[in-house]
Amino acid sequence: MLVAERHQKIVALVNERKSIRVTELSSIFSVTEETIRRDLEKLEKEKKLSRSHGGAIYINISDSLEVPYFEREIMNVNEKREIALEAAKQITEGDKVILDASSTAWYMAKSLPDIPLTVLTNSLKVAMELSNKKQIEVISTGGNLMSKSLSFVGPLAETSMDAYHVNKAFISCKGLHLERGISDSNEQQARMKKKMIQSADTIYIMIDNSKFDVQAFSHICGLELIDHIITDSKADSDIILQLEEKSLHLIKV
């Protein structure tokens, strides 16, 4: 079977079943699990599916729809954990920071030490995770709760950002394009992230390798507003070089 034909059949299986494991795909196509992982990585970059821990899941082709949190939580898990751990290392005692409603921010919240910090977030999951850490003061934006992402958005959430100023913001996104900047699949999330960026001195973008050279539905900001990019070890070396040429500070884990 040709590689292109295998890829086509993998996408068809994922679309039909909504999720499938690497081990099953390996058995179906009589190839190694490593071959299947490479297939899934390529198909994810082509926006035909999303990788999950141990397999792949169906994605809606409508880019403006948010992926439910429970699905985002298991997509590219290892990369997100690596990025989150590195992001947590950028925090020092006494910081006032913003964490967005991404699954990477939730992994970061889990990694944060229990030290004196102030964390502003629009994520219900992040707020709940940090509630167990006694020295961390948590401020929620409030607003309209989006059930899929467990995040607060809308006019009240956006207006609440105007009352605060922090020294660091940790933001994730659906795409980073060399010319068009960073973007998100949902307009309301993009508006919140734009407000977060405006409220912070230093901006960290947490992004795994699958999001590079991607332009999602709603624009957030240009690359000139970003101070640091934290990414995983699989990021394409050519893209890394081009970002460095733009004088962006990359932290590659």
- Gyration radius, in Å: 18 Å
CATH top level assignment of the largest domain = Alpha Beta
**Which class of secondary structure composition applies to the elements?**
alpha/beta
The residue ranges in which pLDDT falls below 50 over 5 or more consecutive positions are 61-65
State the strand order across the main sheet.
6-5-4-9-12-14-15
Give the overall form.
globular
Q: Roughly what is the average pLDDT, rounded to an integer?
A: 89
Strand content: 15-25%
CATH architecture of the largest domain: 3-Layer(aba) Sandwich
| Major β-sheet annotation | 7 strands, parallel
Q: Report the helical percentage.
A: 25-40%
Order of helices and strands: HEHHEEHHEHEHEEEHEEEHEEEHE
CATH topology of the largest domain: Rossmann fold
- Count of discrete alpha- or pi-helical segments spanning 4 or more residues: 10
> How many E strands?
15
Note the gap between the termini: 36 Å
Number of domains: 2
GO molecular function: DNA binding; DNA-binding transcription factor activity
Protein name: DeoR family transcriptional regulator
Pfam family, one: HTH_DeoR
Domain HTH deoR-type: 3-58
List its salient traits.
253 residues, 15 strands, Rossmann fold, 2 domains, globular
Please explain how this structure is put together:
This protein has 253 residues and is of the alpha/beta class. It has 2 domains: 3-59, Orthogonal Bundle (Arc Repressor Mutant, subunit A); 77-252, 3-Layer(aba) Sandwich (Rossmann fold). 38% of the residues lie in helices and 25% in strands. The chain contains 10 helices and 15 strands. It has helices at residues 3-17, 22-29, 33-45, 69-72, 77-88, 103-111, 124-130, 155-161, 187-198, 237-245; strands spanning 19-21, 50-52, 55-57, 96-99, 117-121, 136-140, 144-146, 151-153, 166-172, 175-177, 181-184, 200-206, 218-221, 228-231, 249-252. The strands form 4 sheets. A 7-stranded parallel beta sheet has the order 6-5-4-9-12-14-15, sandwiched between helices. A hairpin with a 2-residue loop joins strand 2 and strand 3. Helix 2 packs across helix 3 (33-45), helix 5 packs across helix 6 (103-111) and helix 6 (103-111) packs parallel to helix 7. The protein is globular. It starts with a helix and ends with a strand. 41% of the residues are buried. It holds the Pfam family DeoRC. One of its GO terms (molecular function) is DNA-binding transcription factor activity. Residues 3-58 form the HTH deoR-type domain. This is DeoR family transcriptional regulator. Keywords: DNA-binding, Transcription, Transcription regulation.
